[in-house]
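fold-stage: in
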Amino acid sequence: MAAKTTPHSYTLEKRAAAQPLYFVKVGTYHYRDNARKEALAADYPLQIIRTRDYYSLVSEPFHEKNGAKVMLQKLRKKYHDAYIITLYRQKSTTKQKRLPRQKSVPQTKRPLSLFSRAIQLYRHNSLEEALVLFDRILIEEPENDYARNYYAKTLMKLGFYDDAEREFQKVHDTALKNESCRYLRQIAIHRSKAPYKSWFAVGLGYDDNINLTTDKNTTQYGPYLLQNDTHKTKSSYATAAFALSHTKKVKDLTLYTTLYSYNELLHSATGNNLNFFDLSTSLIKKYHRFSLVAPVGANIAWLDGKQVSRNIYTAPAILYQASRHLQLKTSLLLNDNHTAFAKNRDYLLIGGGAGIRYKKERWQASADTGIQRYDAKEHIRYDIAKNLFQGRLSAGYNFKKQYRLALVMGYEAHRFTRRDPVMGYKRRDTKSYYALSLTRNINPKKSVTATYRYTDNRSNINTYSYTKNNYTLTYKQHF
C-alpha cells in the first residue's frame, strides 16, 4: 500500500464560502519517514498531511461527519488516540489580475493568536479542533506549559485518559502543579469507576421522640384530655443500610439503576422495628449544558414485619450547568401511595420544585424550594389531604483532606385542606429543623459520620406539637 503525502492544500482556519472536510487523525510525527512507515503498516488507507513543521496521518476526507465517525470506530480498534479534525480547502493560488492599490483601513480587531483560538474552541466544546491547535502549538513550542496543560485537559474530555495523564505529569513540577494534581485525581477516580457500585453502612442512634408525640404529660384534644407516657417515646436503636447501583452508558444516554435498603432494629422501645426497600431507574440525557433526568421507582415499608405502605413514583428533572461551579434544577414529583397500616389512608401526591447548587474546591452549598399537594383517596381522611410548602438550605466544607462538616436547615408549612371533626377547624403545622454532621474519611472507601438533628413541629392543635432530638453514629464501607 503506497503512502502518499497530500500537498499543503488544507487549512485549519475557515475560509469564506469554504466547505468543511472531515478527517480522522491518528498521529503526529516530527519526521516524514516515521509517518510513512506507520501509514504503510496500517490496515486502512492513510495519507500523510504536512502542517508546518510536522506530519500527521489522516484518513481520506469525508464531506459528512457521520462518515468520519464510522471510520473513527474502525481506526480506534488499533489507534486508541484517533480523533476527528475539521479542515478547509485553501483558496486557489493562481495569479489574479492586480487591483488598484487602496488606502489601508485600520483594523478594529487584532487577529486572535493560535493559542487564543485554541482556548476559544476548547471553551465552546469543539474539542477535536482545539486538540489540533494545541498539538500544533506544542510542536512549535514544546516548553509551553500552559498549552500542554490545556492539551491534557482536552485529551481528558475526549476520553484519552492515558495520554492525558502523561501530559499532566509533564507539567506536574511547574507552576501548574496544583491544577495538574486535581486532574490526576479525577483520572484516578474515573479509572476506579465500574458499572456496579455498592456500599454498606451500620450505625447506632438515639431518638427521644420516636412516635412524634407531644412532650407534655397531658394534652387537650377538643373535649378530650389525653395522657402521654413520654418515656415510651425514647429509644436507642441500631441501623443497617445497603445500596447497589449500576450505570449503563449508550452514546449520550445514561441508565442509572439503584437498589436501596434501610433498616432500624434492636429498639429499646418495642414495636418500632422499621424496614424500607426502594428500587429506582433513572434515564439521563445530556444536551450541551442541559441534562434531563427521568427516574421511575417503587418502595415498600414494613413496621414490625407488617407491610405499612407502598409507593410508585416518578420525579423528572431538568438540570442546567450555568457555569463550572453553578447548577440549576427544576423538577416534578408524582407519587401513588397505598397504606396498609391504617384503613383508607391512601393518597395521591403531585408536586414540583426548583433548586440551585454551588460547588467550588472545598465548598459545597445548595438551596431548594418546593410545593406538594396530598389528596386523600378516601374523602373522610381530614388528616391526609393537605398542601405542603418547603424550603431547604445546606452547606458543606472539606478540611484537612479527611474531614467534612455539613449543615442542613429546613422549613415546612403543612396546610390541611379539611376540617378536624373534633376541633371544628383546619389543622396548620409549621416544622423547622436543622442537622449538623461531621464525617471522617478513614480512606477513600471507609468513613465514619456523627450527626445531630433537631426538629420542632408547632401546630394550632396542641396534640400535634412536638420536639425531637436524634443522634446517630454511622460507619460506611464502599465496595
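fold-stage: in (second)
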Amino acid sequence: MNEQPSFDEDNEGMELNSDAGSTEKPLDESVAVPEDIIDLNRVAAKVRAELQKVIVGQEDLMDYLLISLLTKGHVLLEGVPGIAKTLMASMFARTINVDFGRLQFTPDLMPSDVIGTNIFNMKTSDFQFRKGPLFTDVLLIDEINRAPAKTQSALFEVMQERQATVDGVTYPMSDSYMVIATQNPIDQEGTYKLPEAQLDRFLFRIILEHPSLENEVLILHRFKEDFSGRQSDNVRPVIEREQINRFQKAVEMVAIKDDILEYIAGIVDGTRHNGDIYLGASPRASLAIMKASKAKAALSGRNFVTPDDVRDVTYFVLNHRIILAPERELEGVSVRSVVDEVIRNVEVPR
C-alpha cells in the first residue's frame, strides 16, 4: 500500500545574490508572497491530508504529483507489483474535481481503443466520432508497457500537444489534462519497452521501492479491519478546475534568475559531454527542470527559485531521458550516480 521513492540528494541551503550583469531585477526575498501561492499551499496541504487517509507516508511523491499537475506535466510511476502505484494515482485523481479515466494496457489493445473511432450513423447517414477513454482530464494508464508501439504512438500527440487528431479533425484537451502511467520493470513477459520519444514526454519518472519496516507495520494496522479498502471512499476532491488554472498561472510567474537558468542549462549540457552517457538530454529536459523547479518553489511557499529547487527535481526529470554507455550499464553503474556526478560538475550560483 506504500511506495518509497529514493530521495537521497544532500540539499544544502544556498544564498542567492543578484548578478552584476543580469538583465533581470534582483529578487527581493522580503517581498510578500503572492496570495495565489499562499492559497496553493493551503490546497496542497488538503490534498496531502486526503491522500494520507489511505496512503502511509509518501509526502514527497504527493508533491511530485502536484508539481506535474501545476506544470501540465505527466508522471511515470515505476515499481514492482503490490506497492500501490495504481492506488496512489487513483487516489490523487480523486482529490481533483475533474473527469477521471482509466486504461488498462494489454498487448491486444489497438489505437482506436484508446482514442476512439468514427461510427456511421444510419439515421443521419453521416459519421460521428465516438471518443475513447483518452478524452478525460486525469488519465491513469495501468501497465503502460504492455501495449505495442502502434498503440503507444496514439499517446504521442495528446501528451505533448494536449490534443488528439482523428481523420483530420483536432480535439483539444483541457488545461488540467494529465497522464499518470504505471509500469512494472521486473516482469518482461508480454511487455514492450517504451519508445524514447514517449519517455521524453513524461515530466518525471518516479522509481518506487518497498516501504520501510515501520511504514509496513502502519499499513497493516490501518487495514487490519478494512480488507476491501473502504477507506478509499473517504477521499474527497479538494481542488476545483478553476483553481488548477489559477495555480498554473501563479507557478508560471514564479521568478527565476538568469544564473539559475544558466545552472539548469549547464546541468543538461553536462549530460551531453559525459563519458558515462551515450545519449544526453534534450532542450525539452531543460524546460522540464525549469518548470518543475518553479512549481517546487511555489509548493515551498516561495515566489523565487533556488538551486535547491533545481537539484530536487533534476534526477526525476533526467533519469528516463538519458541513456548510459553500454559498458557502464554492464558494470552496473546507476543512472542516479551519473546524474549526481553531472550536477556536482556544474558550478552552483551564489
